Amino acid sequence: MVWKKVVTVPVILGLCLAGFLPAHAAETIKIGVVGPRTGPAAATGAAFEEGIALALDVINGEQGGVLGKKVEVVFEDTGGTPEKAASGFEKLITKDQVVVTVGESHSSCALAEVPIADRYKHPLIIAEAWADEITAKNSRYVFRAGPCNSGVVKDNLLGFVKDYGFKRVAIVAENTDWGLGIKKLAEDGLKAMGVEFMTVETERQSQDHYTELNKIAAFQPDLVLAFIYGFGVHYFIAQANETGLFPKKALILEGAGPPSLWPEFWQNVGDAGNLELFLSRMHSKVDFNPVSKKFREAYTKKFGKEPTDYKSRSVYDVLLIAADALRRAGSTDSEKVVDALEKTNLEVGSGVVQFGLEKGDYRYHQWQPPMLIVQWQNKEQVVVYPMSVKTGELKK
Amino acid sequence: MPRRRTQTLQLLMALGLALFPFFAGDYWLHTGIICLFYIMMASSWNLLAGYTGQVSFAHAAFAGVGAYVSGLAAIHFHLPPLLGALLGMAVAAFLGLLLGVLCIRMGGIYLSLTTLAFSEMLRIIIDNEYEFTRGTMGLSVPFILPVYSKTTAYFLMGAVTVAVLCVIRSIVRSDLGTAFRAVQNDETAAASLGIHVVKVRLAAFVISSTMAGLAGALYGHYHQLITPEILSLNLMFFVLAIAVIGGMGTFVGPIVGAIFLEFLSEYIRIYGQFHVLLFGLIALAVCRFAPQGLMGLWQRRMRALSS
Amino acid sequence: MQDLLLYCTNGLLLGVIYALSALGVSLIVGIMNVINFSHGELYVLAGYFSALFARALGLPVLAGAGLAVAVVFLFGLLVERTLIRNTYGNDMASLIITFVLSIVLQNAYLLIFGPYPQKPPNWVDGSTRLFGLFYYGNQRLAALGAGAVVIAVLFLVVKKTWFGKTVRAVAQDREMAAMVGVNPDGVNMLSFALGCALAAAAGVILAPIFPVTPTVSVGVSLTAFIVVVLGGMGSLGGCVIGGLILGLVQNLGSAYVSSGYKHFFGFFILLLVLTVRPTGLFGRKQL
Could you tell me if C122 lies within 8 Å of chain A, comparing CB atoms? Predict the structure, then answer.
């Protein structure tokens, strides 16, 4: 009995200790990715995985790795909740010892990650979290090569309302950082343009929108801006159609993008999805440059289908940016990587990336990609805005 | 076990825990701190559920009360986090008393459902009053100490955990502890012995909620981020699973359960989302086949060995 | 005025739906004194199966729904036999075990069906103009009809048939029923499975309107608990009234007070009822 203990106790202790020892002599360079693989926005995680696979093919293939080593990606799930995102991000830095982290698709998660990036002096490149505050915090270690609320509202939404002459706009927004932030910007913009508007807030996970829709219908808008990221917007569109609001009386412009491209979209909305509008960074007929063309061809070859969810390319882009900065820094030291990132001048799928360097507001360390407004017309995507690249006419 | 061996063992464990931060590295230190939080949560829940037989679903909610009160006080009134934690604990105690007075008389299923309703109401309020609480986006709060250091946080959490455990141990061994068990086993018999059933239950409920409030406040300031997730049924499930797997109604059970589950969850992290499923299955198996938990199995084994 | 009418219609419709999805909990608590915490998960399971049968196997949507209810009924028999039977007489043990089961099922669904919503095809498309004032989805009206039918059938079964009489006998006095030759174990097993089948019925009726995901189950269970407590534990009639009250309060509250607080009102009522009149509005059991 005693002997048994003499053997088992050290074995158990040994096993425990083995876990504490950090992994030594990394043979690869690790880049972290944060994003929702579970939870209501898990489809974004799936798109990220595709983008990661394609980016690694490029970085480790034709570019021959980074600093003489292969690049390895560690993808940490955030579940779309800030708490999980913060602890996951910390694990990437302290346990997996990644040298730079990219990704993110929820503003609330990104905002929870910014102080951690500061604390560990760890470079973080955001791909798809839009809240202005993320870069407005002016952290030396945080960059964003993706849309921000201000950019989206000023460059796209307000122009769309103005150029197509909409008169009365209803805004429905989820009560999260992103939803409330972009709602405020849209309200201010519409007020300045002298367009009549009204606002309703809703829950991201809500499945029943009849009450909200009744309030909207009473206002008699000709356009509804829906800022709901997740399946909630599917139910909203289906019910707007049931209650006779859309598309008979008003068009709906979904301001988050991918939910209108998720595989469940047509299952959930049925024929009600026709004529719905959404924001996108990508369209199969609009190639911004050679990189975006290369991305589309590589995607089609690897996955045997056209890329739909544009967030696969968003994460592809930030991974290319990270690899480029590591190469130019000549080291994995975070201060040098940050200096290199500030000097970025790289063509990626969405355009030529150059980060803003003037401190003060959200433009610091921010690069705004061009965005498109797309309309579903008989299950075909038709670009209707900006006017310069449109592939068809807006239908009402 | 002979007394001397028990003492040696305790000494060794204390030494191990004291030296832990110096060889563990940031990541495992973090795991250790979270583990201490779960020990406090599960032990205090066990004091109520395991000893008096009242299953409260508001335990995570009281941790949330502690965390939010302390965090909001720090942000809006610049209260130092350590004082804030005391305030959070006091508010949790007060709310525990109020809720207890409302529902403890009915006991049983009614208490479970009332605490469930309370916890959901609290979550909805926090979600909706985002101008004050920052809602689902989470509240960023200052670190528990003026300077950021995981090692100090570990020792602080450790000291509080030991204090909480000592209080629980002395309660369990006191007359009050005897009354707890009497109330659980047979209310009518307990009443006929002159035990005031409602008062005893209320005492257990308030003590347990107060401890949850303290644990939650420290946890929030350690994380520097408080989200409504802390009030969720997910956290409640984790606390319940720890107590059930470790062994309800035993002093050591929740401690063993917390260490077992927290470190297990780190080893199986590669399976990501499915570790909750695994915990659930373990808890289900324990409920069905070993209602006394790991401690029950251990005791049975010791008894079998000694006879 | 038009608004009020719309909110009341919506409230009544959701009320019938809430009543329907709470009947299973009420039946089980009335007969066995067990709160089934995994009620919502069974609702979701039926929703998944009906979507699967209709979309993957190509069954007609109503046949798929019926089959889904039958599968969940069998699952209920299994759960009672393996997990619940040992816990009779110990309310807390059954509460804990069904709570753990609910978490296990949620995570199993995530593994099997993924996080995305699953939706069986609509039974009917389009919408109808009600009272000449507003449009209302036809699928919602169909769900209202189907829900009313299920509730009526359940009442007939419990009040008029031999099975109903046996069940009521067991609920009122176990020992007495056993003495006159009723097998309480068999009745328990059957009633538990019937409660699960009622959850399933609610699931298949509602899934076309509110597609199922692994976590919607939590809301379903919580709503069911509110309705059951409101109406009085174990009272089927109280359950229907409780559902209607909850539906109205939620809709009027979210329309005129705050839509963010929609679910708050239900819990508030629950707390109020429990403190003022713990046996509910029509409570017949003194627990």
Answer: yes
